[in-house]
């Protein structure tokens, strides 16, 4: 690794990645290119540019990737109704492949021979970033400072920053109460005050949602329009993917929707506790399942539900660019051909409830399910259907009876 000439750093502008930037310059004596992605984290990114300039960086990339993030990553994942371990909407996981992809592209554009991330050696993100890098450029070299340096405490990081005149935000001088990752889909808070899974998360941890008990006493009614499995409108107004998710975040957050306190199984083997907020995603998931309930064939829907945990695990573990994820995506996308229509939801004190749905491709037949007289279904047909399905059960029961008599 000593002959590295140029490296592309995933740079947030925060303390850790600013220290990494300087550490790269000192350790590898190489040119550093910074890449800062706007994925809807809700922070002003120009300070990251200014800090990179202050640290002597010439090639600085600050890019708005919100539309690409929602259109090409979040929406395909939501077509699958993906949930890791039954509850987690994969907000951090789904952002990493896009960042990795753009880093590799910038490396090609600038002639860099290495990429660098700020993920620790204990977490999932190191795996997600690096699997993405290698899938897109098998020859790329990867620098992971947390696995190399000896700056293994907050005090050492602060000391390094002070020695190298790296600006430190005042709230970083003490022990940070928890760490936060955010994008347009969610916020994730971990560590410090949240490490004891038996201690309730303090209210100040939550950034995008009001407490459900403090949400309005009057429900909010909205309609979400879908085309081929993707949300395209709210209350009849067509919106771009990023604008739509932003609107749902506002609506869901105001009604206390999308909070999750989770102890999960990391890919590297340990359990971790995280506090997640996914207001818009929680509403979107409920709406999408409501649309599928009307338009998706039973066999197709049940097969999707069987495959979903595997699909979600692939994303969680960093295999977005794997052939098996792409194969599953093709199946999922095929299932969405007729998932088009409108879903009406009630948002109220932490819940998003489907209260109506309609579609030009509906498979629901009122003629068949009515309790009134109908001319399309002969109830006598059910007798043969039941007897055929009961045949193996009757044969097994008859065998048990014979065995009991012999005993």
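Q: What amino acid sequence fits the structure above?
A:
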């Amino acid at each position: 690794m000593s002959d590295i000439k140029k490296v592309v750093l995933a740079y947030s502008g925060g303390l850790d990645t600013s220290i990494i930037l300087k550490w790269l310059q000192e350790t590898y004596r190489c040119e550093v290119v910074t890449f800062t992605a706007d994925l809807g984290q809700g922070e002003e990114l120009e300070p990251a540019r200014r800090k990179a300039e202050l640290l002597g960086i010439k090639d600085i990339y600050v890019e708005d990737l919100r539309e690409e993030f929602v259109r090409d990553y979040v929406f395909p994942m939501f077509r699958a109704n993906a949930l890791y371990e039954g509850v987690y909407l994969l907000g951090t996981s789904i952002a990493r492949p896009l960042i990795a992809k753009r880093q590799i592209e910038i490396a090609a554009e600038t002639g860099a021979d290495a990429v660098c991330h700020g993920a620790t050696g204990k977490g999932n993100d190191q795996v997600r970033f690096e699997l993405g890098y290698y899938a897109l450029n098998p020859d790329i070299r990867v620098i992971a400072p947390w696995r190399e340096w000896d700056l293994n405490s907050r005090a050492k990081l602060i000391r390094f920053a002070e020695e190298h005149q790296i600006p430190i935000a005042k709230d970083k001088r003490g022990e940070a109460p928890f760490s936060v990752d955010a994008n347009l889909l969610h916020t994730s808070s971990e560590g410090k005050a949240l490490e004891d899974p038996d201690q309730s998360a303090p209210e100040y941890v939550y950034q995008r949602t009001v407490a459900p008990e403090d949400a309005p006493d009057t429900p909010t009614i909205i309609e979400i329009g879908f085309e081929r499995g993707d949300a395209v409108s709210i209350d009849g107004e067509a919106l771009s993917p990023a604008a739509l998710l932003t609107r749902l975040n506002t609506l869901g957050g105001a009604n206390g929707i999308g909070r999750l306190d989770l102890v999960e199984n990391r890919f590297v083997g340990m359990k971790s506790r995280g506090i997640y907020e996914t207001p818009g995603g929680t509403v979107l998931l409920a709406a999408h399942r409501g649309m599928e309930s009307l338009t998706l064939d039973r066999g197709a829907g049940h097969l999707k539900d069987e495959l979903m945990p595997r699909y979600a695990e692939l994303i969680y573990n960093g295999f977005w660019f794997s052939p098996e994820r792409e194969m599953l995506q093709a199946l999922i996308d095929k299932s969405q051909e007729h998932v088009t229509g409108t879903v009406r939801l009630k948002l109220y004190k932490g819940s998003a409830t489907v209260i109506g749905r309609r579609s030009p491709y509906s498979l629901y037949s009122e003629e068949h399910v009515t309790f009134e007289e109908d001319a399309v279904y002969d109830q006598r047909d059910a007798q043969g259907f039941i007897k055929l399905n009961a045949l193996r059960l009757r044969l097994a029961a008859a065998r048990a009876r014979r065995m009991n008599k012999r005993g």
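Q: And what stands out in the fold?
A: The chain has a mean pLDDT of 94.
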